[in-house]
Amino acid sequence: MRAVAGGAGPCPLCDSRLPTAVFDLPLVRCGGCGLVFRNQETGPEQLRDQFEVIYRNAEDEQRVQDRRGRLYREFLARYPPAPGRNRLLDVGCGTGEFVRLAREQGWDAMGVEIAEAAAERARAAGLSVRVGSLTTAALAESSFHLVTFWNVLDFMPDPVAHIRAAKRILVPGGILLARVGNLSFRTAVYRAKRLLGRWPRLAAPLARQSFFSQISFNARTLRQALARAGFERIEITNSLPSYGDPYRTLPPGGDRVLQIVKQSVYGLTWLVAACSGGRALWGSSLMASAVKEEGPRGCAG
To answer: From CA 204, how far away is CA 52, in angstroms rounded?
Structure first.
């Protein structure tokens, strides 16, 4: 590892200013908490512009959402709405596919999205979506029973601020759910890619799967982020993988091949997690749930 030259920003999790270069710059690992993040300034406008570009390609985005359908349906089956507890907010909702499915299952669901292009498409489909970030949206305190982050928390330069904002709008006893990429898995893929460097044809598929987000959580740092924001009853597990090849990293026909690989890897990581009592989580993505502490007895919500 290499020390980072002057100008390194604070860690988004613990505010430490002792990062060490890891993998490939601008990726660094915090010397205080171990979080891996991109050591480059990304303001709200830059982040918004990046997602505006993504959502202008409707076909690519629909492909991704179609391949996450199983995840959404499995989650909604485990978390049905109840009378008086049916308000759901999806953060970074994109074009609103999860919001739509949640509404079909009886949730009073809405979304927030920073990309105007995505929000416009969601609204055209009759969905309730506000443009902006969760930290700036004018949402009432204690007004939702469930807040979801589907593969967006690890793209936010300030994830703890967004988790705190989610806690503010949740009712006491409300649940936050976050799905993020798993640093432990991506580290293994990165190292395998480096080992196969002499055989480019073998290394190329791994290189296309070796992606590090703005924030790269593992189970420990994700738990720290949720706890620092004040959540309790935090549970983190391996997430089901999305179907096939949502980002077109393989040649045509790669969907089926990658799905077989994903299912095999998921089965193996599930076995490792079970044998370790849930301590060893090596899945490609993590799923975290956390609860806002209950208010004093007799409070509404």
So the answer is: 28
- Pair (254, 174) in one structural domain: yes
Residues 5 and 134 in one domain: no
Radius of gyration from C-alpha coordinates of the chain: 19
The pTM (predicted TM-score) of the whole model is: 0.90
pLDDT in tens, 50-76: 788 777 777 888 889 999 999 999 999
Q: How far is CA 26 from the centre of its chain?
A: 20
In what helix (H) or strand (E) does residue 166 lie, and over which residues does it extend? helix 159-169
Range of the domain at 143: 42-291
70 in Cβ contact with 97 (< 8 Å):
no
- The answer as to whether 116 is a domain residue is yes
pLDDT average, residue stretch 216-234: 97
| Cβ 46 vs Cβ 214: under 8 Å | no
Report how many domains make up the chain.
2
* Distance separating alpha carbons of residues 280 and 220, to the nearest angstrom: 10
Q: Decide if 82 is inside a domain.
A: yes
Residue 298 belongs to some domain of the structure: no
User: Which residue's structure tokens are 């409070």?
Assistant: 299
- Signed CA dihedral, 54, 167, 221, 22: sign only: positive
